[in-house]
Amino acid sequence: MIRLLAFMMIFILLPFSNGLADDTKKNAASEELRHLDAFLGKWKVTLNGNTEEQSTSSHVEWILGGRFLQDKYTTHDGKQGMILRTFDPESNEFQVWTFTQDGSQYQTGKWNAAEKALKVVGKRGDHKVVTIAEFKDGDTIEWSVGVVDSTGKIVEQYEGVNHRIRDN
């Protein structure tokens, strides 16, 4: 049944994909997608949040013809997750989907060239979620995630650092 639904979605959405073939939109997306290259590779991710320091491993690669950046990770306690990133030339925004064993989340945002940072914002229930990834150098990304309730109070906050793992 799931496979049937998947095939139906492909055939329903396929006629609407002509806009993606437009060269202007494709070039705009390609230019913006280059900002995501800094995420590529294998990473040791250190999380500093509401709990003690924790370490996670992450592997990031381009998929689907270089249109989406896939980040698969495993946390210190064995939980797995995946993040998909892309750029949408229609909205002129980056799109980020995060999938965990606890559910999923969708965020959109902009690249800040002066700060070498990607900032995306989304919702989790009635909470706003803000994620910022700052590229410090070719091997280091500092990031933060803040969850804000409807009154503006920060209810969760996490920070971390990604260190690139170089193959010898």
Question: Can you summarize this structure?
Answer:
16% of the residues lie in helices and 55% in strands. With 168 residues, the protein is of the alpha+beta class.
On the 0-100 scale, what is the average pLDDT?
Answer: 81
Distance between the termini: 46 Å
Label the overall shape.
Answer: globular
Q: Give the strand order of the largest sheet, numbering strands 1, 2, ... along the chain.
A: 1-2-3-4-5-6-7-8-9-10
Structural class: alpha+beta
Task: Encode the helix/strand succession as letters.
Answer: HHHEEEEEEEEEE
Number of helices: 3
- Structural Rg: 17 Å
CATH superfamily: Calycin beta-barrel core domain
Strand residues, percent: over 45%
So, CATH architecture? Beta Barrel
Approximate helicity band: 10-25%
CATH fold annotation: Lipocalin
Number of strands: 10
Task: Provide the CATH top-level class.
Answer: Mainly Beta
What is the fold's blueprint, element by element?
Layout: H1 2-13, H2 18-21, H3 23-33, E1 41-48, E2 54-63, E3 68-74, E4 80-88, E5 93-100, E6 103-112, E7 117-124, E8 127-137, E9 140-148, E10 154-165
Structure description:
The protein is α+β, with helices and mostly antiparallel strands and 168 residues long. It has a single domain (2-165), classed as Calycin beta-barrel core domain (Lipocalin, Beta Barrel), CATH 2.40.128.20. The chain has helices at residues 2-13, 18-21, 23-33, and strands at residues 41-48, 54-63, 68-74, 80-88, 93-100, 103-112, 117-124, 127-137, 140-148, 154-165. A ten-stranded antiparallel barrel has the order 1-2-3-4-5-6-7-8-9-10. β3 and β4 (80-88) form a beta hairpin. The protein is globular. The N and C termini lie far apart (46 Å). Mean pLDDT is 81; it is low at 1-25.
